[in-house]
Design goal:
single chain; 165 residues; alpha+beta; Aminopeptidase; five-stranded antiparallel sheet; three-stranded antiparallel sheet; 5 helices
Length: 165
Amino acid sequence: MLPVQFFTQRLSLSLITSNDYSFIKEIVNTKGWLAFIGNRNINTDEDAVAYINKLNNTANLFYWVIKLKHTDTAIGIVSFMLRNYLPYYDIGFALLPDYENQGYAYEAAKTILDFVLTLPQHKIVLATTLPHNINSQKLLNKLGLQYAYSIKREETALSVYSITK
């Protein structure tokens, strides 16, 4: 089991709960999420609660909500999950547009990555991104992940990045 909370200089990261439904409804409908992650068809508060419950009832899946410490404002997510098409856990991240390019995604993802890489069961961590998601690729490289290979998932090409402790 991974920790429920992490703290950095500027951020708090807490495992997602149904109380985060409003934030989830907002982030999954942003232009970036829709373009790079995909439409989750979350249009109502009830849809968002159901989505969160599904996440929380899925084995080997962790979603932390990133909040600014000084205002408790939810600004993004970091995910860590074992996908059925990858041999190792995958780290992911997304931010609301107003909080991009300020180092928050790096700070949050690095905190999770640094922790999981200390665990014996997570000596290798992967990340996937669309080949044209240049900003995500830059952040993955900054985090120490390197391009490893490409795969096709449901007719979509994905670039797989990897880090080994």
